[in-house]
Each structure stands twice: as structure tokens, then as C-alpha cells.
Design a protein that fits this description.
CATH class of the domain at 5-180 and 213-248 and 291-306: Alpha Beta
Structural class: alpha/beta
Distance between the termini: 42 Å
Strand content: 15-25%
Order of helices and strands: EHEHEHEHHEHEEHEEEHEEHEEEHH
Number of helices: 11
Shape: globular
Helix content: 25-40%
CATH superfamily of the domain at 5-180 and 213-248 and 291-306: NAD(P)-binding Rossmann-like Domain
Length: about 325
């Protein structure tokens, strides 16, 4: 069955929420994931498990028939773990580059070509000196870890297929995203769960700074972008990189500052312990900083993040608090 929008990694955090946006806009949505359909809990939680054409299939095994007829292909199937990318670089290389290669080769055979959308990461910027920030779409990448390098390489892979075959490509770079339904092994979710259970929490890379972005703001960006692309208002956007990270305060936060805010909002008796720095989190003797600006998103869409860090954390904490007995520490 031909679909309007095809999403790789459709059972994941971003893929499932993006699928819901597209379903609600009336598009026929399909996608693939290596998660068994009966374990794709986010699709059930979002109420769209019966409204998507789900393929239990890895991106490596896709072909032109799987995506032909789609006007948009959204590639969410890459590894999303910075520490895992450092510990398992070969696996990260395969997922973050081989998968997109297969997908892009499949898209070349589609007529007309679909718009190829790739959600990248601002991890590509962790090596940019503080005096050269904030980070904009024109800032050259400087990754400090293997995961960031793989995302940078995937960006260039997409751009190469744009130049070679004329595939329309849109690359989206998001700051550190958090919110309801996020993976429980990510820093913010893990800290929330420990604090809600009044347990001590080890804060790794405590003075490193990130631009933390609430998922609701990210999804609003994608909603606006889909509308503009579908209406044909951005027909000249055939090879663009757009940032959609940030918060209403327009500032990066240190890891320890985020943890302290979570402790305060939960009223936890758990202690925050300053942990070691991860590989690539100290450059030239200073903790890394990632201060993201979304200039093109405002120029094209009028989009700006609406939530402060505290507002987003309150919503995220409430979500985990209501499901606390589902998680084992």
C-alpha cells in the first residue's frame, strides 16, 4: 500500500510523535522499525497503532517499493545514544550511515523523488569554542565524540545525494530534547526517576552545557514545517539545514543546573553527586558548551520555542510520576 509519509524508526520517540502529527493532518502514514509491533508502546499510547502501515523491518532491508509514492520520507532510525556511540562505534557506524545509504538509494529509484528529511543532532557542535557561539545553521560542525561524527557524516551523505541525484533534502538539528514519553535511559528522565524515588543520582559531566528543548516545541516546529512543505510554500528548500532547538530563555544550561531544578521541582531527598566527565566533554581544559540558535526556523516559519526549561520539566516530571511503578531503577 502506497503511503504519503514513510517514517523509519516509527516506534521511537520522535518517529511515533511525528507519525501522530501526520495522521492528524490526514496523511496516510507508514513506516518501519526493528521493534515488534506488539511492543511498540508509544504508538498505542498515542492512539495511532491502527492508523499506520507498520513494517517490522530494518532500514537496511528497505527498497524502492517500500517508499515509492511517498511525498515525504522521515529518517528516524539512527542510533540516538551518545555514550553508546562511544562504546560501540562499529554498530553506530552501521546504523547511522549504512541505513541512510540504503534509504537514499531506494529514494533515487522513486519518481517523483520524495522529500528526504533527516533529524540530526547538535552533538555535531560540541567542539566549537565558546567564543564562537551561539551556534547557527552556518556554524561549521566540530564533533567531539563518535556519535556526533556519525551524525555529521550522515548529514553530508544526505547532501551528497542531493547534489548527485537532485533528491530534495531537509536536515533538522535539534538540541537536547526531553518531554513526555522520552526514553527512560536519557539524562533528564533518569534524574527524574531517581529524584522521584528519593535516590542519590550521579550527574555525569556536571559543568557541561546543553541547549535543552522541550518536545512539545519540537513537535510544533515539525507541524509548521509539514504544512509549509505540503502547501508548496518552501519549494526552493531543496537542500537546507534548519535548527529547531532552544528554550524560551534562549540559554544553555549546565547538566548540574538541570539536575538541581529537577530535585527542587520533585521535592526529593535524594542527593546529587558530581560524576566524571564523559569522553569528549572536556576540550582544552573546559567543559563543552552547546548554545543553539534557530535563526532559519524563525525566518521561514516564524517559529520560536515557547517553554522555559522549568515549564517543560514540570510536564515531564508529571508524566513520569503518573507511571512511576512501570520503571525499575
Amino acid at each position: 500500500m502506497s503511503v504519503d509519509v514513510f517514517i523509519t524508526g516509527i516506534a521511537g520517540e520522535l518517529g511515533s510523535n511525528f507519525a501522530k502529527l501526520c495522521v492528524e493532518k490526514g496523511f496516510k502514514v507508514g513506516g518501519c522499525d526493528i521493534t515488534r509491533f506488539n511492543e511498540a508502546w508509544r504508538l498505542k499510547w498515542l492512539g495511532i497503532e491502527d492508523r499506520v502501515d507498520y513494517k517490522w523491518k530494518a532500514t537496511f532491508d528497505l527498497n524502492t517499493r517500500d517508499i515509492d509514492g511517498s511525498w515525504l520520507v522521515f529518517d528516524c532510525a539512527c542510533n540516538a545514544d551518545r555514550p553508546f556511540g562511544t562504546l560501540s562505534p562499529i554498530h553506530t557506524l552501521q546504523n547511522n550511515l549504512l541505513g541512510p545509504t540504503v534509504l537514499l538509494e531506494s529514494a533515487v529509484g522513486c519518481h517523483p523523488h520524495p522529500i528526504m528529511m533527516y533529524p540530526s543532532s547538535c552533538n555535531v557542535f560540541l567542539g566549537v569554542p565558546r567564543d564562537q557561539q551561539p551556534l547557527t545553521e552556518s556554524t561549521p560542525p566540530a564533533p567531539t565524540n563518535y556519535y556526533g561524527w556519525s551524525k555529521m557524516a550522515a548529514e553530508e551523505l544526505y547532501n551528497t545525494y542531493n547534489r548527485a541525484f537532485g533528491l530534495p533534502v531537509v536536515i533538522i538539528r535539534t538540541g537536547s530534547c526531553y518531554g513526555e514519553g522520552m526514553r527512560s535511559d536519557q539524562f533528564i528522565a533518569r534524574c527524574i526517576l531517581y529524584m522521584l524515588n528519593d535516590k542519590d543520582f550521579n550527574v555525569r559531566s556536571p559543568e557541561a552545557s546543553r541547549t535543552y528543548t522541550y518536545a512539545g516545541d519540537v513537535l510544533e516546529f515539525y507541524m509548521m514545517l509539514i504544512d509549509e512543505l505540503w502547501d508548496g510554500h518552501l519549494t526552493g528548500l531543496t537542500s537546507a539545514t534548519i535548527h529547531n532547538g532552544g528554550n524560551a530563555e534562549d540559554k544553555p544550561y549546565k547538566t548540574i543546573e538541570v539536575a538541581e531544578m529537577i530535585k527542587k521541582l520533585t521535592g526529593s531527598s535524594g542527593r546529587l553527586l558530581r560524576g566524571k566527565y564523559e569522553s569528549g566533554e572536556i576540550i582544552n581544559g573546559e567543559p563543552v558548551m552547546q548554545w543553539e540558535k534557530s535563526e532559519l526556523a524563525f525566518e521561514l516559519l516564524g517559529w520560536k520555542p515557547k517553554h522555559t526549561l522549568e515549564q517543560g520539566l514540570r510536564k515531564t516530571i508529571k508524566w513520569f510520576e503518573e507511571r512511576l511503578d512501570e520503571y525499575v531503577l
